[in-house]
């Protein structure tokens, strides 16, 4: 990997030993593993960061998918952007119907003032998630920058290589394609005395590293995002064959939460879920798990 990228790496990641302990525990219980990446990465422009580049990702795809993997008895490492949606939490946020009114009218939240509407679906998800927490089947790992993301991904993917074909790497995070070389990184806030011209370099292809080096036997699910239908399928196919991802999920920015295409073995299948219908992540995870089973059977 380019030393100008890894120059941002820290000597020791905060959750290093929790990750190793968690994975060892899941191995002892012979559980299948899903590593779900979620949310967007930042590219800071200064060490004492005032300004940074970011992207649109909300984390819904990753958070919802993690819930469905847990529902199917997988152990889950949820590698997510700090502040983006998280499993369970995203459902709790929907339950409080009008927290702002409560705060404004009362000055503080009194017990019994907030109103909740718990749908059967949300209730079931809460129960499922609580069970996964009790069974210690889920570990959440927050990141912020593209460098933290890459360093955690390398650590988690390499440590999960012992799961061999039993691990799914489900790469839903929207990872910055560009970064600022370490030599151009400023320690303190940039002045605004003159125009700022930034030259960004290409982020190392993490998908390729996953397949080639870090977890060569894992089942890899990658996501391709485009903003135009004209380029979507062709670019998804190109990235799938370059990286060797087993499944490529192609989506368009503005309809990503109700339509995707699943590309597998050269075949493209469309999945569409109207807003009010089943969450599209449920359908994606079902398709991924079915393919993962075939991948496991092929090895027996
Ligand atoms: C996706 O395409 C995800 O589906 C979204 C989900 C980020 C669009 P939200 O978080 O959105 O629910 O708001 N993720 C991967 C996008 C990506 O960066 N892919 C790379 C690329 O398109 C690698 S294949 O080049």
Give an overview in words.
This protein is of the alpha/beta class and about 300 residues long. Helix content is about 40%, strand content about 20%. The chain has an 8-stranded mixed β-sheet with strand order 5-4-1-6-9-10-11-12, sandwiched between helices. The protein has a two-stranded antiparallel ribbon with strand order 2-3. It has a two-stranded antiparallel ribbon with strand order 7-8. Helix 3 crosses helix 10 (about 280-295). The longest helix is centred in the C-terminal third of the chain and has 18 residues, at about 280-295. The site of ligand 9Z3 has 15 residues, from helix 3 and strand 9.
Write down the CATH topology. Answer: Rossmann fold
Main sheet properties? 8 strands, mixed
* Secondary structure tally: strands: 12
- Nearest-angstrom radius of gyration? 20 Å
Nearest-integer average pLDDT: 91
Distinct helical segment count = 10
């Amino acid at each position: 990997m380019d030393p100008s990228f890894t120059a941002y790496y820290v000597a020791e990641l905060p959750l290093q030993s929790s990750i190793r302990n968690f994975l060892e525990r899941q191995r002892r219980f012979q559980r299948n593993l899903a590593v779900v990446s979620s949310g967007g990465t930042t590219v800071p422009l200064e060490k004492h960061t005032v300004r940074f580049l970011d992207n649109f990702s909300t984390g819904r795809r990753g958070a919802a998918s993690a819930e469905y993997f847990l529902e199917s008895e997988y152990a889950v490492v949820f590698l997510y952007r700090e502040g983006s949606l998280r499993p369970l939490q995203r459902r709790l946020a929907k339950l409080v119907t009008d927290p702002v009114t409560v705060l404004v009218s009362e000055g503080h939240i009194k017990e019994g003032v907030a109103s909740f509407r718990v749908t059967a679906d949300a209730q079931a998800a809460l129960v499922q998630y609580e069970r996964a927490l009790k069974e210690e089947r889920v570990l959440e790992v927050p990141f912020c920058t593209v460098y933290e993301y890459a360093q955690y991904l390398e650590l988690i993917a390499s440590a999960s290589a012992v799961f061999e074909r039993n691990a799914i790497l489900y790469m839903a995070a929207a990872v910055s394609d560009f970064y600022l070389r370490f030599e151009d990184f400023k320690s303190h806030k940039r002045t605004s005395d003159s125009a700022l011209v930034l030259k960004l370099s290409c982020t190392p292809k993490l998908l390729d590293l996953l397949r080639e080096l870090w977890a060569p036997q894992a089942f890899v699910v990658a996501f391709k995002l485009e903003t135009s239908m004209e380029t979507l399928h062709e670019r998804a196919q190109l990235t799938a064959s370059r990286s060797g991802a087993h499944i490529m999920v192609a989506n368009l920015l503005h309809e990503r939460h109700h339509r995707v295409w699943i590309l597998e073995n050269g075949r493209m299948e469309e999945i569409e879920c109207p807003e009010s219908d089943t969450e599209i992540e449920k359908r994606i995870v079902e398709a991924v798990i079915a393919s993962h089973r075939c991948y496991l059977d092929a090895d027996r």
